[in-house]
Amino acid sequence: MKAISVLGSTGSIGTQTLEIAEEFPEKFNVVALAAGKNLDLLTRQIKTHSPEIVAVADSSLIPALNERINHLPKEGFKNGLPKLVGGPDGLNTAASWDHADIVITGIVGCAGLLPTLAAIKAGKDLALANKETLIAAGPVVLPELKKSGSRLLPADSEHSAIFQCLQGTPWAENARLSTGVPTPGLSKILLTASGGAFRDWPPEKLEQATVEDATSHPNWSMGRKITVDSATLMNKGLEVIEAHYLFGLNYENIEIVIHPQSIIHSMIELEDTSVIAQLGWPDMKLPILYCMSWPHRLSTPWKRLNLAEIGNLTFRSPDTSKYPCMQLAYAAGKAGGTMPAVLNAANEEAVAQFLEEKIHFLGIPKLIEMTCEKHKNDLRSDPSLNDILLIDKWARNEVRYQSRKVLI
After folding, report:
1. What domains appear along the chain, each with residue ranges and CATH number?
2. 127, 335, 345, 173: which is closest to 244 by C-alpha?
3. Residue 405 exposed, middle or buried by CB count within 10 Å (0-12, 13-18, 19+)
4. How far apart are CA 237 and CA 231, in angstroms?
5. Is 215:151 a contact under the CB 8 Å cutoff?
6. Whole-model pTM above 0.85?
7. How crowded is residue 182: how many other Cβ atoms within 10 Å of its Cβ?
8. pLDDT digit string (tens) for 73-121?
């Protein structure tokens, strides 16, 4: 049985992880939870899983959570009442909890960076759903992974697909991710993208895009921020940078292809021209389960893939005029150093402003480009963790300042 710590337990990744733990109680034991402000859901999770420790991002919420827990039946706590901790130190404690074998990092955005680093330094295996950790801090995370011996398993559907495809290559002998060393035999990565909410819109129509439009994904059920990233294709641009750090390929060898059906989750091309793909329904539970059970496969009652039912699988190149964020991500990745951190922070802040209806949809790439352009003269090629944290804060402030120049 694996003991798991779930960071971001009340979010999309966290709730699906806990559903899996409930489906396989003989395989997984939840020992730690970390969440934000949704105390009602967190209380229900505590009642169901009886963790040893629970962390909340805001320490001031501990008394309210404690009151809720005290109203729960005490006989349901197999480990006794959980230890309650809060704030950044509390999140780090849950991430590095002694009894945890694997940490599921589902905290959205750069907020997940410090807890993820805490888990790595504690030598924990990681199921990484928080792509921003590598994007913003790859130069810091890679050395820590090598030092600690932690194994990083990608829970993002596209990178999980690549990871699964690689099991039949020479790379599988070592099964080590995030070494920065090119993967043996691997020639190209093909990241598939649904195209998001606007895949069938002409570029000129995007001026009319609303928050409701951008958060209505045709295939996937995801959080609002990630759904907007899918609509701008920034999610795929960020995945390009993450794939570079995970698998060691140059950016010229990482390609994005639009695949509207979202059945092929990504592909690899090998040096002999063979192409290997991983297929499945558009459901995040499968890549999460594979991280949790790796190197084993678990039998599930889930719906089987039926290619005859699907009928057609189609592909096309992304329209760069409709998806400028994709090109911004490639440019930031190639610049390296602190530029991906600026890109990620600027995107998070710009998307937040769009969701609050402070800027127009087309303002998102404009703000990101302005911020990255301003950072060029201050780029640091070998940043420290403190550099990244300061630059992250600067980029967010810069977006707020520049947003005054961007029409709603």
Report:
1. 2-150 (3.40.50.720), 186-402 (1.10.1740.10)
2. 335
3. exposed
4. 12
5. no
6. yes
7. 13
8. 887 787 788 999 999 999 999 999 999 999 999 887 777 889 999 999 9
